Amino acid sequence: MRPLSLIHNYRCRLLLAWLLAGLVLTTGCRPLAAPAPSLAVAPARPTATADVATFVIYSENARTSVPTPAQQAAAALRATLADFSASAGDDPTGAKAAALVTLRNFVDASGPYRGAWWFENDQQGGMDEMLAVIFYGEASSSLDVRKAIAARFLWYCGGQGEKCQGHALVNFLAYFQAWREPWLVTRGFMNAGAKDYLALAGDVVHQQGILKSWIPGAEWFVQNPDGLTQAGPVDWETTLFHFANVHPTWDAFLRRVLGRAANGPNRLWVLTVGEARTACQAGMICPDMTQARP
Fold first, then answer.
1. How far is CA 78 from CA 142, 170, 194, in A?
2. Which of 143, 163, 189, 211 is 20 to 30 A distant from 203 in Cα terms?
3. Residues 95 and 194 reside in one and the same domain
4. Does one domain contain both 118 and 195?
5. Which of 199, 234, 269 finishes a domain?
6. What is the pLDDT of residues 80-126, one digit of tens each?
7. What is the pairing mode between strands 240-245 and 268-272?
8. DSSP string, 80-120
9. Count of domains in the chain?
């Protein structure tokens, strides 16, 4: 049996030597070098997995720590609700308190305006959408009124844009009956027709586009936080600013003092700052012209 064992061992050695020789040939005669990875298969899975993981991590961070534009636009409205309260001495007519009630409902996706068009995409009510609703409610039939609304936003919120909040934002909102008393808006406060004013609202909030044509120098105007206007390029004396469907006593008075007719039906007057200074004789601040003239 011993010779057979030797023959068997000899054949095994030959087979092993043949296999080693084949390995050397297939690796280019470099048996100690690491085999090159297959570019068609090996890296594909780990690379794809890493990309997906990176994308998921980035998306989560973006969602939790980097606010989206819609979240930024809504943040100022929510901050106003959290920090501002209208005192009796600062709000004798209750206009600011009424404006805050509408603002609270406007940003509440579960409130009385749930299902409104401004909640459709992101469940947020932002500055552009808020302004579009005001344009729709107040100025759907009057270009002069639209210009006055744009000027009032610039006056109170210039330089802040979508970050405008607190006193500046509330003072702006409190002027508009369509915002203070939304149930009076013709065709409804939630009407999707307000979407037609989103482009205009965006120009006004960001002080660009058509606002620069309506109010030359608007893109450089900045309102101080303390309410004092910095010296700037806007000619406020000739800028449309006040508007109202005035009481008959005011209608007669304005026709006499300003020497012109109203801007529209139902005794609609839109005054420049200069005209308001002339008619109201108290700077640019006018009393409520919907009430009888004192």
1. 30, 12, 21
2. 189
3. yes
4. yes
5. 234
6. 999 888 776 788 889 999 999 999 999 999 999 999 999 998 888 89
7. antiparallel
8. HHHH----TTT-TTSHHHHHHHHHHHHH-TTSTTTT-GGGT
9. 2
For residue range 204-246, list pLDDT tens digits in order: 999 999 999 999 999 999 987 666 666 678 999 999 999 999 9
Helix (H) or strand (E) segment spanning residue 244: strand 240-245
Q: In this structure, is residue 181 part of a structural domain?
A: yes
What is the pLDDT averaged over residues 266-272?
Answer: 96
Q: What CA–CA distance (Å, rounded) separates 93 from 15?
A: 105
Question: Of 261, 258, 287, 252, whose CA–CA distance to 274 is shortest?
Answer: 258
Say yes or no: 183 and 258 in one domain.
no
- The upper half-sphere exposure of residue 113, i.e. CA atoms within 13 Å in the direction of its Cβ, equals 26
The domain of 240 spans 235-294
* pLDDT band with cut points at 50, 70 and 90 for residue 203: very high
Is 293 inside any structural domain? yes
**7 DSSP β-pair partners:** none
Q: Which amino acid is at 11?
A: R
Tell me which of 28 and 201 has the higher pLDDT: 201
Taking the C-alpha atoms of residue 185 and residue 179, their distance in angstroms, rounded to an integer, is: 9
Q: What is the per-residue pLDDT for 140? A: 77
The verdict on 162 and 283 lying in the same domain is no
For residue 229, the SS3 value is strand
For 124-191, the three-class secondary structure string (H helix, E strand, C coil) is CCCHHHHHHHHHHHHHCCCHHHHHHHHHHHHHHHCCCHHHCCHHHHHHHHCCCHHHHCHHHCCCCCCC
Gyration radius of the chain's alpha carbons: 35
pTM: 0.74
What sign does the dihedral 133-151-84-186 (CA atoms) show? negative
